[in-house]
Amino acid sequence: MSVTTTAAAPAAPVVVPARPLITGGLAATAAAAVATVAVAVAGEAVGISLAIGGAPIPVPGFAVLTVVFSVMGLALALVLARWARRPRVAFVRTTIVLTAVSLVPDVLVEASTATQLLLMLTHVVAAAIVIPAVARRLSA
Asked: HSE on the CB side for 68, CA within 13 Å?
């Protein structure tokens, strides 16, 4: 007597179309850029210095760096969408860790505590906008 068994093939990863991921990610990037500028302007309006080591941070710099790092996050999402078994989980976990790591330089810079906290707030605001917007477009 012989027994034949078949092993179930591993499920192929669900391929997420890139276009909605890119357009949604870019829209979130734009919203985050506006939001970080608004946070910086609001902080300045209440008297928080935007100077690090005596050199002022130009307000448009908040938007530029938000766009640069959000696009890098979007690129990460595209890679994970293609190669990760669970892209949404991998993206959220990775970007939360990266957001936490991004706060370290803000603590180390030569600036007032209020300035350091304002800088950290801009990171958290950008992450709170971009991470969920991109994650919801990735397969679980």
From this structure: 6
CB under 8 Å to 109, separation ≥6 — which residues? 52, 53, 115, 116, 119
Residue 100, classed as helix, strand or coil, is helix
What is the per-residue pLDDT across 62-79, written as a single tens digit (0 to 9) for each?
A: 999 999 999 999 999 999
CB 39 within 8 A of CB 125: yes
Whether 11 is in a domain gets the answer no
Q: Show the CA angle centred on residue 24, arms to residues 33 and 68, nearest 5°.
A: 40
**pTM (two decimals):** 0.87
Q: How many domains does the chain have?
A: 1
Domain that holds residue 124: 18-135
Residue 1, domain member (yes or no): no
